[in-house]
């Protein structure tokens, strides 16, 4: 039997900027493509392990779209667990194949496969682990939403208390990156990650997990359905002094990334005193090249304080004054670099 495990779709996200409406339509479309994939590949059930929605502000359009989508695929069960973002009743109508997990352990069975889940609340989080009772002869999939913790909390999953509970696969939601590991001798736990990245903190390929109940210890992340990917790359500016040289380092770093994606570039390496490291101009140059572009400066000023210890020039006095201050190291480096360039009469953008 084939099962899809997904989570953290965050439909109707509260995105900022002119592209917010477009991105929300793309998120909905990616979910639609996942359901089409399920239908084409004879998937029997889709587990939604929390945060199908981003908040309680769900549009009528999104509600109607999902109800129609579920209704068009009666051969697929959609097993829906509410997460910390969508802990409300978002469906005024419930298609028969939309099967919710409740605030008590709820199980849906398919021959010898049992899929059991629970919505964690302030009322049940202290006792829910003791109440989980699974048949050791079944193939047991358990669904929860929350961060991994060694303590029992309403928004967490205590792995220690789930060990030796006859779990074969623990389907989790909350973390937006795909990962899995051993739970105990019998089973594993897995975060499917989000279906599509929405911001620069959701880097890398995203998708959903395809499960074969004959081999649950090897979950497979299916990618390639997303509209856009969030990339993070480093541009090493070591040995580059002029603006064009630094710009060339960024150009090389992003050269293989399609313009439709999100791109975050980290400036790294060591730069020399007075280097033309203009983040303002770099943003102006690269912003139009991608769907969204972000620049982060992690480079380090290469300076030997002994070179200016006895320098009686204005430059030497300025450098010594800044280095002896209580400012953070990164701020000292920026002030020195901008200051030296200002003394040369250059136009500085911060």
Describe the structure.
With 350 residues, the protein is of the alpha/beta class. The chain has helices at residues 20-40, 60-71, 243-253, 279-286, 314-323, 329-343, and strands at residues 2-6, 43-49, 77-81, 98-100, 106-110, 113-117, 139-145, 147-149, 156-158, 169-173, 179-182, 188-191, 208-212, 220-222, 230-236, 262-268, 270-272, 292-297, 300-302. The strands form 5 sheets. Strands 4-3-2-1-13-14 form a 6-stranded mixed beta sheet, with helices on one face. Strands 5-6-7-10-12-11 form a 6-stranded mixed beta sheet, with no helix packed on it. A 3-stranded parallel beta sheet has the order 15-16-18, with helices on one face. Helix 5 packs antiparallel against helix 6. The model has no long low-confidence stretch (mean pLDDT 90).
What tags apply to this protein structure?
350 residues; alpha/beta; 6-stranded mixed beta sheet; 6 helices; 19 strands; elongated
What is the CA-CA span between the terminal residues?
57 Å
Count of helical segments? Answer: 6
Low-pLDDT segments = none
The succession of helices and strands, N to C, reads EHEHEEEEEEEEEEEEEHEEHEEHH
Strand order in the largest sheet: 4-3-2-1-13-14
- Our estimate of the beta-strand percent is 25-35%
Largest sheet: 6 strands, mixed
**What structural category characterises the helix and strand content?**
alpha/beta
Identify the overall geometry: elongated
Rg over CA atoms, rounded to whole Å, is: 26 Å
Mean pLDDT rating: 90
Query: Which range best describes the helical content: under 10%, 10-25%, 25-40%, 40-55%, 55-70% or over 70%?
Result: 10-25%
